[in-house]
Design brief:
Elements lengths: L16 H14 L2 H5 L2 E8 L4 E3 L1 H12 L2 E12 L2 E10 L5 E11 L2 E8 L3 H7 L8
Parallel strand pairs: 1-6
Antiparallel strand pairs: 1-2, 3-4, 4-5, 5-6
Length: 137
């Protein structure tokens, strides 16, 4: 007899926003981009102070790029209200930026993340990546 208690739940069985968002952050932290992609809706909308786009593939590209400068991430709080979640966390970079507080507002529907809006001070990151914030935040 096989003990399945240690097996990861199937994506369609993740019924709550908290489970979906927790899995998203766990997979991002583990750099499991295939597993993370499976949590994202095909029409995902992403809004941030540096980039805004539609589509999960661009998010995976962005997270891979960001992972190169990330030393650690410390989750501080997770708030859930129905299909919405707000996650507050600190990112410690391996750059002169050091630590940066961030927040994400994630929206789920049908067991997938459909919208992410991220909030952080973009100036140090824009300078690091050689971009300008077109969003003015």
């Amino acid at each position: 007899m096989v003990d399945d208690r240690s097996r990861e739940p199937a994506f369609d069985s993740m019924s709550t926003t908290k489970e979906i968002v927790s899995a998203y952050f766990e997979r991002a932290r583990a750099r499991d981009y295939a597993g993370l992609r499976a949590l994202l809706d095909d029409d995902l909308r992403f809004e941030g102070p540096i980039e805004t786009f539609v589509g999960p593939e661009m998010l995976v590209v962005t997270l891979r790029r960001f992972a190169k400068i990330t030393a650690s991430v410390a989750l501080r709080r997770v708030f859930v209200d129905g299909d919405d979640a707000c996650v507050i966390y600190d990112v410690v970079t391996n750059t002169p930026i050091g630590e940066s507080p961030m927040a994400e507002w994630l929206q789920t529907r049908g067991g997938k993340i459909v919208h992410i809006r991220v909030y952080f001070d973009s100036q140090p990151f824009a300078a690091l990546f050689g971009t300008c914030s077109s969003r003015g935040r």
